[in-house]
Amino acid sequence: MGEAALLVLEGPWWTPAHKPKRPSVLPFLEGLEKYKGNFNIYYSSFYEKQSFRKALEDDLAHTREQRLFLYIAAHGGSRMVGALEGEGGKTISSGMRLTTLLRGIRRVARTTNIEGVLLGSCTIGANRTDLLATLKTSPIAWIFGYACEIDWIPSTLIDVSILEHAMALKKEDLRSRTKIIGAFSSALSRFSGDYPICREENRSVPLKYAISLLCKPQKPHASPEDLTRQLLETLNWDKG
After folding, report:
1. Contact between residue 120 and residue 74 where contact means Cβ atoms under 8 Å apart
2. Cβ-contact 71, 7 below 8 angstroms
3. 177 close to 215: Cβ distance less than 8 angstroms
4. Residue 166 and residue 185 in contact, taking contact as beta carbons nearer than 8 Å
5. Cβ neighbours of residue 8 closer than 8 Å, sequence gap 6 or more
6. Can you tell me the distance from the alpha carbon of 4 to that of 18, in angstroms, rounded to the nearest whole number?
7. I want to staple 237 with a disulfide (CB 3.0 to 4.6 A). Which of 84, 193, 217, 226 is the partner?
8. For residue range 136-185, what is the model confidence (pLDDT) as tens digits?
9. Which residues contact 20 (CB under 8 A, 6 or more apart)?
10. Given the DSSP bridges, would you call strands 96-97 and 91-93 parallel, antiparallel or unpaired?
11. What is the pLDDT of residue 162?
């Protein structure tokens, strides 16, 4: 058994009528797991706050690893996570409020070893004040998210790259903002900052304007900080 575990909580992306094969991020992550061989995956699905809480708590109850990483992959919009629409715009699941999701994460993080949280949802990364507050009141070292409406395939590939590099950080590396930024810079350097990953009304948004990295190093008296600008500077994506 590896010393690290990736907890994956995924909401449905499409109804069977829209995509009968029900695409999932899990096969991408299983490929990384087989390639790296040094971590385990715990996977659950959720529809709303009750199933999210149950999935999160059940997964944590079965982990024995010393280092945990949380990946939440679901539809996002403004301050909601996990909403799903069917044909004709009919709501199948209204999802849950971002504040509810973050409250659940904080509750479990205080008694477990969750080091980082990747939010693979549209627009949720734009709520930086909420994410900073979550870091302030929990031992989590970093949170990464997207600030606009992202395409599914490109963002999933980016998420896999981020998880690969973030999980490769040593425990002591989490004391350093520089090393945390370096891991995310290495992960994102595989991609173009100018790639139009987001759709926003009648315009596209490049990757460099679509990401958020919030951090609180795991050392005494550290304060949470928005490191997005420093990350862009490290990548040389801050020009133009």
Report:
1. yes
2. yes
3. yes
4. no
5. 25, 26, 29, 41, 42, 43, 44, 71, 73
6. 35
7. 193
8. 999 999 999 999 999 999 999 999 999 999 999 999 999 999 999 999 99
9. none
10. unpaired
11. 98
> How many of the other CB atoms lie within 10 Å of CB of 26?
15
Which residue type occupies 72?
I
Write the CB contacts of 59 (distance below 8 Å, at least 6 apart in sequence): 7, 9, 42, 44
DSSP state of 204: E
Domains and CATH numbers, the chain: 4-235 (3.40.50)
- Which residue bears the tokens 């971590």? 39
Residue type, 177: R
95 with 84: CB under 8 angstroms? yes
| Strands of 76-77's sheet in order across | 76-77, 80-81, 96-97
At 84-137, the pLDDT tens digits run 665 555 555 667 889 999 999 998 888 888 999 999 999 999 999 999 999 999
> At a CB cut-off of 8 Å and minimum separation 6, what does 13 contact?
19, 22, 23, 24, 74, 75, 84, 152
Q: Are 140 and 114 in contact (CB under 8 A)?
A: yes
**pLDDT tens string 174-229:** 999 999 999 999 999 999 999 999 977 788 999 999 999 999 999 999 999 999 99
Residues whose CB falls within 8 Å of the CB of residue 166, separated by 6 or more in sequence, listed in order: 69, 116, 118, 142, 144, 183, 184, 187
Predicted model pTM: 0.93
d(CA 118, CA 75): 14
